[in-house]
């Protein structure tokens, strides 16, 4: 089932269950999908990789907000953001463990032929494309830095 159809069905379920956190998160994602679909140059339905980018962006926005609320000692707002993150992450591909990520990045480094830190750009280009939605970009960057030292 396409992500948009799945979100629509889950919005209905959240309404029936009277789950405001889930409803708020799903409506935000649906809004992001609709904005992306109506963007100039788009041809209607989104590709799965575009859907993953949207979901990843939504999670990142909420994590950034959660960090700010944590710094400002606002547990009420922090709880809302964390609840929305949990809902949105259900639609993302399974996140790689640190060992799995390191293993995949070692394969990419070998395939690209990178050996020095100046090759980081080549590795990151391939890695971010192949591992989109499976690992955070900051984590990928940190592992690549350790592998190319």
Q: How would you describe this protein?
A:
The protein has 149 residues and is mostly helical. The protein is 73% helix and 0% strand. The protein has seven helices and no strands. The protein has helices at 3-17, 20-37, 48-71, 75-89, 98-112, 120-130, 137-147. The radius of gyration is 18 Å and the shape is globular.
Name the features:
149 residues; 7 helices
Record the SSE blueprint.
Blueprint: H1 3-17, H2 20-37, H3 48-71, H4 75-89, H5 98-112, H6 120-130, H7 137-147
Could you write a compact summary of the structure shown?
This protein is mainly alpha-helical. It has seven helices and no strands. Helices cover 73% and strands 0% of the residues.
Q: What's the rounded overall pLDDT mean?
A: 87
Shape: globular
The SS-based structural class is mainly alpha
Number of strands: 0
- Output the number of helix runs: 7
Radius of gyration: 18 Å
């Amino acid at each position: 089932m396409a992500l948009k159809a799945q979100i629509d069905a889950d919005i209905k379920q959240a309404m029936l269950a009277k789950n405001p956190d889930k409803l708020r998160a799903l409506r935000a994602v649906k809004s992001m999908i609709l904005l992306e679909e109506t963007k100039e140059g788009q041809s209607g339905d989104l590709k799965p990789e575009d859907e993953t980018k949207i979901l990843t962006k939504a999670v990142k926005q909420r994590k950034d907000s959660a960090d700010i609320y944590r710094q400002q000692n606002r547990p009420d707002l922090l709880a809302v953001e964390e609840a929305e993150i949990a809902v949105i992450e259900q639609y993302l591909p399974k996140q790689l463990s640190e060992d799995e990520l390191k293993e995949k990045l070692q394969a990419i480094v070998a395939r690209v032929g990178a050996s020095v830190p100046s090759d980081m750009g080549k590795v990151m280009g391939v890695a971010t494309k192949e591992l989109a939605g499976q690992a955070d970009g900051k984590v990928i960057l940190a592992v690549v830095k350790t592998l190319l030292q």
